[in-house]
# Entry
Amino acid sequence: MGMTTPPRTLAEALRARDDESLAGLLRARPDLLNPVPGDITQLATRAGTRASVVRALEHLDRFALQAAEALAVAADPAPYETLLGLLTGDGRDDGEHRDDAGAAISDALPGALATLREQALVWGEDERLRLVRTAREILAPSPQHASPTGLGPTVAEATSGMSPGRLQEILAAAGLPATHDPVSAVTALAALFTDRTRMGELLDSAPAEALSVLDRLVWGPPYGEVTPNPTPPVKWLRDHGLLLPVSTRTVVLPREAALHLRAGRAHRVPEPRPPAVEAVAVRDPQAVDSAAAGQALLAVNTVEELLKNWNGGGPPILRAGGLSVRELKRTATALEVPEPVAAFWAELAFAAGLLASDGEADERYAPTPAYDDWAELPAQDRWTHLATTWLAATRTSGLVGGQDAKGRALSALGPELDRSAAPEVRHRVLALLAALAPGTAPDPETVLARLRWERPLRGASVSAGDTIDLRSRIALWTLNESELLGITGRGALATHTRALLDAGPAEAAALLAPLIPEPLDHVLLQADLTAVAPGPLERPLADMLSALADIESKGGATVYRFTPGSVRRALDAGQSAADLHAFLATHSRTPVPQPLSYLIDDVARRHGHLRIGAASSYVRCDDEAVLNEILADKRSVTLRLRRLAPTALAAQVDPASLLEGLREMGYAPAAESAEGDVLITRAGARRTPPRTAPVPVPEGPPVPDATLLGAAVRAIRAGDTAATVVRKDTPEAPATAPGSLPRTTSAETLATVQAAAMTGSALWIGYVNADGAASQRVIAPVRVEGGFVTAYDHTADEVRTYPLHRITGVAELADDATA
# Structure
């Protein structure tokens, strides 16, 4: 669809595009699709709204934005050479602008301009480039505000309220001929500032102090405050029009004068090329993969340990949601990590759907049923699940400990941690790392510089509670979290991560699997009541050992310590002393030490000797001496015990508190059922109801797929055809103005539609739906009966049935309209 004449409006420029170009616009600015515009004119109108233009500007890189800013301070329309001159300067090099920079700008400008055109921010031929009006209003200076380039308003804008007498005084001081026409006076003053020779002579005659004042204003902000009695340099500048009054106390350096002082450049430092991501170290790729694999295994084990700690019911949930500071500290202590890292693991488990609220009245966190399925997977598959979740999650654990807009602390697992920019920043950071040679660890500062160049307007956050540069903060968190998660190793991107980004989880798991050691089926028991696991353990062995012993230290080898409390925990879970002896003998590569055997037998002998039940609660024991000892112990006062019988005591606390209190006193009681049987507490029995993982909060409308884009373009084209189609002008159906609905009587409508159905011709109709919304369509009637017309709707690209009474009128298309 070509055009022989230049477009006069943005709608005409869009109408001249081919379907692929329109689809590119909708892909780059998906907000234009909600809802699908009825025609090209609606598309152009929506593309010029302030919200949509701001969103489009936020997605420009720095040089494309600088090109748009330069167009905003140029005359409208501006030729390509003017735009290029505003970016490269007029050749008067002041030492900051080199020839190679000018060449780089010349090479990069066509691409930047193509981006602006694709996103419908700029339209028109190279001889008449136009920035859309809304973008010009946002980026151009005004008499009250400077533009992002630091330039002030033009002479005409700054002098719009100035008296003719004052203009004459300025012309006289500048050596210009007097004129009684204000427009001519403004034109003459602007011409002086744009004339290199005369402007140079004027500045040569200025006092040195006046030039110092201009130096402070030239690169912005161009506004300055003056006193009622300004200093001689300021008075000289004001008298000669180099400083124009904005108010009684404010003056501004006009744009034309500033551009002369800048050697014609709109920006101090144009940035046509993105800054390179520099390396701080280049490491052996195999060492990087090994380090990342080790960290990946540690990440999986850490998440599993966190959820095991919360197996029986995790910490309570705050009324406002999330973990309290005290519970986060407890979790960090249990995991032996700093609190921010503990918050990261908790957030990752929550985002992966492995952790949720149990929904009880006393609401607590607990593992979900999905955790059991995840725990049965091989380590590499568990890692890919965590990694893909992290990449897509909008929950940002780095915000924990900060404050929201109302000054309230942001808590881990709380409701205010979603930041929609997080997934895009994470993917972009990893893409920059992937572009480096394998084994290359980047300099974080250069990564941040590159991100700021790519999205210069998106650094400042508008989210509640954030300050500035949210993207940079997320990028730094991404680098740290990547190392924790095993995405990177020793600062460089791992091979399995490259596969995850390029090919998907299956390929990443296949590359990671050989780097993860096989689970072991044995431990090494030692005489000091410890067991050493020289590597990861098989799941049944790890589960049983975690119930029987406490983890003392982690690392390449895990050290477990057996204590009376840990042995009692295994007995509470239903194991007998014989079961524990057999388990240790089976899974130890060293003989079972005698102290460990004695420990198990001693705890088992006393286990269950006392019985706890619910009366409010009670203690019973066949040995009266033991009960006497408990009553005599001062530590039992808080339990409020009293004797019911020689072998039974009653308490005023619940069974769980009584059980815990006696254990703290050094006894080994066991809970019993109403039938008198010992209750067995099995680890990991508490689970939430089935939960779905939290859905990431999207950042604006989703990018449409090819199918939706194709359908949208066809609908817009068809609607545009209906809006702009040429109709026949007949006495029965006179042609109407473009965009207005045709009007015919019911009889004329029925007759015209029936005739079109017989001849197979197309009609232009006006239609009002059940909601009262009016539209115009191009249809090809197929059948007319029962008060309905069935026709192929070119606007919707499908066959539809319309009630005849909702058709406002019909008109035949001109012969050339269907060609």
In short: The CA atoms of residues 429 and 475 lie 7 Å apart.
